[in-house]
């Protein structure tokens, strides 16, 4: 996999009254944990009884997948929670990895998004370099290496499903980096409810329609029995011929109707006073880099 | 919505487990159960594979944190392959066990995984090595490991005989696994057995209901 070389960004610090300093910041690769220290310091400041730092958005979730005769069926609910509040009612939990591989994510929403994005980018570069379609087992190995390296700090529990030249595959990847190859699977906070349905009705080599219904029923059971799962059901069907991403496969019967339009046009808030302060910038250093377009 | 982790020492998925390896006349049998658990109360997989092939005639079985064990065996597989290519000959079982031991010992702060390495090589024939949690390497004629092994020390010590035949050894290993799986809550599922000899490798799977029963009414 090739790493692209980027030009270092120049950050210009403006010091009130004093001379400017030019700070060269070379971007580091990988994840940056600087904000962890910042958050701890902030919490110390806010501890005076006022606001607490917002809880990270989790997909308190039900996700499921199974391998059937013609391919792989993945399913997920669409609720994302932040503490006890539903932060997103139509969250997309089935992420694109490559044309033949999709991934459902449970755990911290940001972690699953970024991890699957990174994986998708890496696999695309690999496809371009090698001229081959990526295999599911390769995606799983990359995920395992990365999650293990972060020792469980990345809260991503993933279900990876896909069809490649070696068959139909379904893998589970845990947050600490453990993997398992299975014919059917459920994860997330609603997994026990969903697993009950899957254990009862799963058969090897099911027909496509039966498989879609089974996944739907499993997610539905998770939605009914778990507070962290809810709203609509997404289904993604991957076969040799292509992918059918049905979003939503089933809408929640408890959809509420908006009473009015909640959009505010410009001019709703009146401007009382206006003050313009010109910023005086001093040019300290000017460099000209020739671009070679020969 | 948050499920609380019970007081299990291992974070994430653990192979709560029974593993064993026994030498017999002409080969070695390595066996394990197939259960992976989280927190000692939830079985996250009934069919996990704990017998990892690290080379043609060398297998290793894993106990402890599943993530740690899978990562270590991945690294070990690569290193053993590379070593074998450099030496232009199949690796010795002791070499494979040493690779695992180095990884476990040098990273003992971060890792929580133990291994049993067993195999056949031209120099010493069938061998069994234990790599414990902190990186201790020990060679024994037979060994048992994992949380379920505590229930079968008596049985193993009493029933093991050196130079058994393949059938006697299979019976010994099956019985030992069945007894441990019957008493340990974090061991269960199916029994996986691999018979390694000079001729090749034979994988036997015994489903839970076909295991020998011991007063199980």
Automatic annotation (TrEMBL), chain A:
Keywords associated with the record: Cytoplasm, Hydrolase, Nucleus, Protease, Proteasome, Threonine protease
Gene Ontology molecular function: threonine-type endopeptidase activity
Keyword Acyltransferase: no
GO CC term, one of those recorded: cytoplasm
Keyword Phosphoprotein assigned: no
Database matches in Pfam families: Pr_beta_C (PF12465), Proteasome (PF00227)
Superkingdom of the source species: Eukaryota
Active site as annotated: 61 (nucleophile)
Subcellular location: Cytoplasm; Nucleus
InterPro entries per UniProt: Ntn_hydrolases_N (IPR029055), Pept_T1A_subB (IPR000243), Proteasome_bsu_C (IPR024689), Proteasome_bsu_CS (IPR016050), Proteasome_sua/b (IPR001353), Proteasome_suB-type (IPR023333)
One GO term of the biological process aspect: proteolysis involved in protein catabolic process
Domain Proteasome beta subunit C-terminal: 257-288
Subunit structure: Component of the proteasome complex.
UniProt similarity note: Belongs to the peptidase T1B family.
Function: The proteasome is a multicatalytic proteinase complex which is characterized by its ability to cleave peptides with Arg, Phe, Tyr, Leu, and Glu adjacent to the leaving group at neutral or slightly basic pH. The proteasome has an ATP-dependent proteolytic activity. This subunit is involved in antigen processing to generate class I binding peptides. Component of the proteasome, a multicatalytic proteinase complex which is characterized by its ability to cleave peptides with Arg, Phe, Tyr, Leu, and Glu adjacent to the leaving group at neutral or slightly basic pH. The proteasome has an ATP-dependent proteolytic activity.
Protein name, per record: Proteasome subunit beta
Automatic annotation (TrEMBL), chain B:
Gene3D superfamilies the record matches: Glutamine Phosphoribosylpyrophosphate, subunit 1, domain 1 (3.60.20.10)
Entry keyword set: Cytoplasm, Hydrolase, Immunity, Nucleus, Protease, Proteasome, Threonine protease, Zymogen
Biological processes per GO annotation: immune system process; proteolysis involved in protein catabolic process
Active-site residue list: 17
MF terms (GO), sorted A to Z: threonine-type endopeptidase activity
Catalyzed reaction equations: Cleavage of peptide bonds with very broad specificity
Major location category of this protein: cytoplasm
Gene Ontology CC: one annotated term: nucleus
Localisation: Cytoplasm; Nucleus
Source species, domain of life: Eukaryota
Function: Component of the proteasome, a multicatalytic proteinase complex which is characterized by its ability to cleave peptides with Arg, Phe, Tyr, Leu, and Glu adjacent to the leaving group at neutral or slightly basic pH. The proteasome has an ATP-dependent proteolytic activity.
Assembly: The 26S proteasome consists of a 20S proteasome core and two 19S regulatory subunits. The 20S proteasome core is composed of 28 subunits that are arranged in four stacked rings, resulting in a barrel-shaped structure. The two end rings are each formed by seven alpha subunits, and the two central rings are each formed by seven beta subunits. The catalytic chamber with the active sites is on the inside of the barrel.
Family assignment from sequence similarity: Belongs to the peptidase T1B family.
Name of the featured protein: Proteasome subunit beta
């Amino acid at each position: 996999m090739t790493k692209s070389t980027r030009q270092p960004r120049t950050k210009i610090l403006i010091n009130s009254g004093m001379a400017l300093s030019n700070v060269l910041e070379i971007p580091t690769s990988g994840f940056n944990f600087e904000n962890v220290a910042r958050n701890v310091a902030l919490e110390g400041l806010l501890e005076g009884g006022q606001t607490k730092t917002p809880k990270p958005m989790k997909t308190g979730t039900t996700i499921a997948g199974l391998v059937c005769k013609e391919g792989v069926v993945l399913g997920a609910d669409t609720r994302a929670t932040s503490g006890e509040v539903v932060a997103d009612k139509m969250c997309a939990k089935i992420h694109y990895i490559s044309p033949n591989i999709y991934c459902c994510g449970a755990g911290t929403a940001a972690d699953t998004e970024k991890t699957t994005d990174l994986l998708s980018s890496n696999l695309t570069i690999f496809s371009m370099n090698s001229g081959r379609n990526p295999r599911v087992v390769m995606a799983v190995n990359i995920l395992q290496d990365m999650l293990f390296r972060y020792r469980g700090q990345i809260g991503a529990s993933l279900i990876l499903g896909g069809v490649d030249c070696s068959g139909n595959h379904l893998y589970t990847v845990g947050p600490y980096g453990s993997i398992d190859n299975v014919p059917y699977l459920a994860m997330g906070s609603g997994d026990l409810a969903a697993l009950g349905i899957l254990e009862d009705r799963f058969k090897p080599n099911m027909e496509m329609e039966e498989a879609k219904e089974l996944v739907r029923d499993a997610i539905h059971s998770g939605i009914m029995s778990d507070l962290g799962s809810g709203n609509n059901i997404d289904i993604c069907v991957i076969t040799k011929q292509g992918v059918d991403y049905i979003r939503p496969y089933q809408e929640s019967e408890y959809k509420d109707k908006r009473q009015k339009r909640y959009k505010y046009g410009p001019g709703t808030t009146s401007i009382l006073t206006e003050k313009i302060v010109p910023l005086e910038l001093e040019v300290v250093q000017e460099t000209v880099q020739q671009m070679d377009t020969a | 919505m948050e499920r609380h982790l019970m007081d299990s020492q291992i974070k994430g998925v653990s192979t709560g487990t029974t593993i064993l390896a026994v030498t017999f006349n002409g080969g070695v049998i390595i066996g394990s159960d197939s259960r992976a658990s989280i927190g000692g109360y939830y079985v996250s997989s009934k069919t996990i594979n704990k017998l990892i092939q690290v080379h043609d005639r060398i297998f290793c079985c894993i106990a402890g944190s599943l993530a740690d064990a899978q990562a270590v065996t991945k690294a070990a597989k690569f290193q053993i392959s590379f070593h074998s290519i450099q030496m232009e000959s199949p690796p010795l079982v002791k070499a494979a066990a040493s690779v695992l031991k180095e990884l476990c010992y040098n990273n003992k702060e971060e890792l929580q995984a133990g291994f049993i390495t067993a195999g056949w090589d031209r120099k010493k024939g069938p061998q069994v090595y234990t790599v414990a949690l902190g990186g201790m390497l020990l060679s024994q004629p037979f060994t048992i490991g994992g949380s379920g092994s505590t229930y079968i020390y008596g049985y193993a010590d009493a029933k093991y005989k050196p130079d058994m035949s393949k059938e006697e050894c299979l019976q010994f290993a099956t019985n030992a696994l069945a007894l441990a799986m019957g008493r340990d809550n974090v061991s269960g599922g199916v029994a996986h057995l691999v018979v390694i000899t000079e001729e090749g490798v034979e994988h036997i799977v015994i489903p839970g209901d076909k295991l020998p029963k011991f007063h199980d009414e």
